[in-house]
Amino acid sequence: MSEEASNAVDLSALGSFDFTPDWAKKDEKVTVGKFRPEKGGDERVSRDDRRPNGPKKPFGDRGRQAGPAAPRPRRDGAPFQRFERPKPLDCEIKILPETKSLGTIIRKLQSDVHAFKLKDLAYFFLDNPESILLKITPKGEERFCQCRACGFASTNADEVADHAVAVHLADYYDAKEIDCEPPKGNFTCVAKCGLSGVLLGPPNIHEFNAVVKEMIRTRYPDMTEDQYRSHIEMVRDADAIEEWRKGAVRKTVFFAKGQAEVEGAAQMTREQAEGEFRRTILPSLLDTPKHLMVTAAVAAKSPVKSLVWAVNDAIAAERRAPYSMCFALRGAFHHRKLKFFRANDAHGPEFVTNAELKAFDSEHAIPELASAAKFIADHPCCDRSEFPTDVPDFEKHLGWLVSTGHAVAFTNGVFSAVEKYPKYGPQWKKRHAAAKAEAPAAEKAESPAPKAEEPAAEAAAEAVKQEETAEVNKDETAAQLA
Q1: pLDDT, position 35
Q2: For residue 353, what are the β-bridge partners?
Q3: Which of 69-83, 107-121, 217-231 is predicted with the least confidence, judged by mean pLDDT?
Q4: pLDDT digits (tens, 9 = 90+) for 446-459
Q5: Domain boundaries defined on the chain
Q6: Chain Cα centroid distance, residue 326
Q7: CB atoms inside a 10 Å sphere around CB 96
Q8: For the whole prediction, is pTM greater than 0.70?
Q9: Burial (CB count within 10 angstroms: exposed 0-12, middle 13-18, buried 19+), residue 3
Q10: CA 173, CA 164: separation in Å to the nearest integer?
Q11: What CATH class has 357-446?
Q12: Which of 64, 378, 387, 401 could disulfide-pair with 407, CB 3.0 to 4.6 Å?
């Protein structure tokens, strides 16, 4: 058995959380929300006098100002901007496990002998946005355009096209830097990026617009072109112009994929490569599906904010009750011939395992295996700390029982015997231990007390018998906790 599966998660290292501010911790007599100044005789001030705007207004005068109240200004004088949550997109969202992640989990279950809780597996997918596959169907007239290469989607086809050019151009074209002659001509000024200080070049050269777009694409992708151009400065300095001229001795050219090192291959500027990409390749990358199939990680990058909010709401609801994910996982696991069972009772937690559970026949087994099976049956939900130390190769025999489906090994490191509803959970173990502890007390209470008229010898014999019973029960409890 793997050590990883047998080790339970230890949360003791998290410690305790104290949200009391530092000023309240310095004085034990001061508590949050309870601080009051000491009352003085003549120094007391009325509540109305402490108000910054004078005495308290009558109730009838409240809320009668004309028009809505102005936003409270910030410290720098600018008004606060109220954040308005966009309305989620009106659509149907089904939450499913992503195909590749599902295949990985199935292979893990098929090669493992442990029993995995189905809800824990569902949360494994829900905790990883790349592992959540969403089937989104708009209910209104909106239709999505989607990039077939990566799943990026938007209701605006131009946004998807720009995304495909920016992200997937490198999949079809190779970029290469080559030496070139310094620019010739008389230039009166040179453009400078006000954000980074990079000299962009004179605005009247042919490559200037391409340089600006390249800066936006590589350094400021969150800016629009107009926003970035507002930060461009014009420098009319001969030294700056000469510095730009000396630095412009290399340029980037593009080749068709795999042709960069081929002699005589046609080279293109970025504008030419983008134009060819849009004409010949882009139409095959765009799709307008009826149902949008996309992972949660990709959906979070969509420029359609109403879609992002709808996805966030759907995932949050699924995390509260993962019915859809469990339903999808149950069908996929059943298709791969994995086995299901419930623990404790018919409404207990559901588990999935690769082993076919079956009862163990102790009468036709070797004594070592029979002893191991009996110990698990007598000590349900036991872990390695409770295994008997005087039985040689106990874990080896228990491992055989688990691998053949004659015992259940849970991922939290506990073992139980095979029955209709195998025992699981610390709460059941506590009830089981409490019931065993109450049994001797109940038996002792039900035993008849010696009658006063009985002979002294019979009373003494009864006392010795009760003392022997108490010693036996004490030994059984010590053996269970060993």
Answers
A1: 37
A2: 339
A3: 69-83
A4: 555 444 444 444 54
A5: 91-144+289-334, 157-287, 357-446
A6: 16
A7: 18
A8: no
A9: exposed
A10: 13
A11: mainly alpha
A12: 401
